[in-house]
Amino acid sequence: QVQVVESGGGLVQPGGSLRLSCVASERIDDTYDVRWYRQGPDAQRELIAELTSAGNANYHDAVKGRFTISRDNAKNTVYLQMNDLKTEDTTIYYCNVINYSFSAWGQGTQVTVSS
Question: What CA–CA distance (Å, rounded) separates 109 from 79?
Answer without folding.
Answer: 13
